[in-house]
Amino acid sequence: MLTGTKIGLRARHADDIPILHAELWDDVVISSRSDSRPWRPLSPGAKDPRLGVDDVEPGHVRFSVVELDGGRLAGSATLWGIDDHNRSAHLGLMLRPSCRGKGYGSDVVALLCHYGFVVRGLRRLQLETLADNTAMLRAAERNGFVREGVLRSAAWVLGEFVDEVLLGLLVDEWQPRHDRVDHRS
Fold first, then answer.
1. Whether pLDDT at 185 is above 50
2. CATH topology classification for 2-170
3. pLDDT of residue 14
């Protein structure tokens, strides 16, 4: 497990799936705002890759986010679109509603950067988020991500097109926060 100051990233467990399903993927608004695919209901036993415990797709690494104080499941984090040739990837996260506003997002982004740059040897990380997702924008910018552009009307979300912001971080620009990542875990 990778540990930060408030949360840890660990492998997804089977008992995480019902909680993530109920609080994140089954919520039309949350799911529609975080996924470029249209929302659709998923049954608890669905073979949707987002619900997987053992990932076999090499271009995706899915983590469960857990609170260090007590081990409660806080959400999901992903390094996706991993391109080993160009040494780049995208990152994303979803936090349970009860876990928002606690600074966990910045911790998750820091740990995903550590995983991408140190563990995987990547050179570039990027993320795309809706322009009104101020929490994600703050978490990314606190970790050194730079706004590279706005994709105007790029995302269809609940009946309207909205802008997305593209942010990137190069390994040479990254300032590892040693106080936030425990390498021994």
1. no
2. Aminopeptidase (3.40.630)
3. 87
